[in-house]
Amino acid sequence: MKAGRPRCVMPAILIAQSQNAESLRKAKIHRVFIEICKTIEPRGNMAEISAQLVKQLRERTGAGMMECKSALVESNGDIEAAIVILRKKGIASAGKKATRSTKQGLIGSYIAPGGKAGVLVEVNCESDFVARTEDFQTLAADIAHHIAETKPAHVRLEDVTEAERANIQSHLVLYEQRFAKDPGVTVAELVKTKIAKLGENIAISRFTSIQTDEHGFVGNYIHAGAQIGVLVEVSTARDLASDNEFRTLIRDLAMQVAAANPQFLDKSGVSASALEKEREIQRDRVIKEGKPANVADKIVEGRLSKFYEEVCLVEQPFIKENAISVREYVKSKAGVLGQIKIKQFVRFKVGDAGDAPGVEASPLPVTE
Predict the structure, then answer these.
(1) In CATH terms, is domain 104-231+349-361 a member of 3.40.50.300?
(2) What predicted TM-score, i.e. pTM, was given to this entire model?
């Protein structure tokens, strides 16, 4: 046998050393993570505070990890109470919402001819890759159209209480209905075929529909990527369905809702409990800032005006011209379009429904 060149073992040794170093680095990171988790675990009878809960609070408020941890400990694990605690400290803002979601999917929408009805539906899947496919987008659009035609009251039987279930009619349950475009299959069977084709779990999480009267009009706006969808209902003095300026107004209002995420239509819609909660938060902040007690109430009322601008649609600065409010924008169109009144709005964002079953609770398993 000919003597060949001696094998070079250094690369293998270096690779092994590199891999070992990487393993040690990951182990160290893991140990640090565990130690952090230990610091936020409950003591005594306190509710469990997990790292995931801290993460959720950070996403909803924009506050730092330690501030979130402290607030959750103080609130005994109640995330809503923790938000109030952070806001009292001036760390979180009133309108901050989750910016990320663990669910993927799309918001589908349908507007009936003449704008007399509108539908929003959230359809979830497991990845944004599937959400971007033509099959999935068509499914969301078809389901929205189907809901407009069949007017279901529930997504699935599991949403109906035991007391109601004995008398519930299957045509009121979306998953049990015959699919409008193909009565040979139910909506549940349609979803199951898409699961088999796309290879991911798919679920219809929630829907809403608005039916208006002869003086009303429903418009919509679906933001790029279909992660946010909005319906807006207005009443008009005359039929404006074919008026381009009116349609622009409706689209502007829906875009406003999508961008600014108002919680109420106007000041009268703010519940007494929400208003008192905000007043308490602002009063607590004023006191902690060391302001004199005799001017505290005036400062609080001034801050409530800012609160209304954040959470009430008609009080918000108009996104296209923030020198005026949405109320003033609508009023400016009255000379051309006549009297217009905003009646209601609905905003869906993928993953925002905390009680929506989503992909995790889909009754239809992935077909292997």
Answers:
(1) no
(2) 0.68
Give residue-wise pLDDT tens across range 207-224. Answer: 999 999 988 999 999 998
At 97 the three-state DSSP class reads coil
In CATH, what number does 26-88 get?
A: 1.10.8.10
Per-residue CA distances from 106 to 143, 187, 250, 258, 268 (Å)? 12, 17, 22, 15, 32
Q: Tell me where in the chain the CATH 3.30.479.20 domain(s) lie.
A: 104-231+349-361
With both helix axes pointing from N to C terminus, report the angle between 65-74 and 79-88 in degrees, rounded to the nearest 10. Answer: 120
Contact 195, 366 (CB under 8 A): yes
Q: Give the other-Cβ count within 10 Å of 100's Cβ.
A: 8
Residue range 56-111, pLDDT digits in tens = 887 777 677 778 888 899 999 998 888 888 877 766 654 443 333 337 999 999 99
Q: What is the pLDDT of residue 96?
A: 44
Pick the closest to residue 120 from 227, 271, 10, 200 (CA basis). Answer: 227
Chain-centroid distance, C-alpha 147:
21
Identity of the residue numbered 51 = A
Within 10 angstroms of residue 205's Cβ, the number of other Cβ atoms is 23
Decide if 209 contacts 119 (C-beta within 8 A): yes
Q: What is the DSSP letter of 238?
A: S
| CATH 1.10.8.10 residue ranges for the chain | 26-88
Q: What percent of the chain has pLDDT over 90?
A: 45
45 three-state secondary structure: coil
Distance between CA 13 and CA 11 in Å, rounded? 5
pLDDT at 354: 53
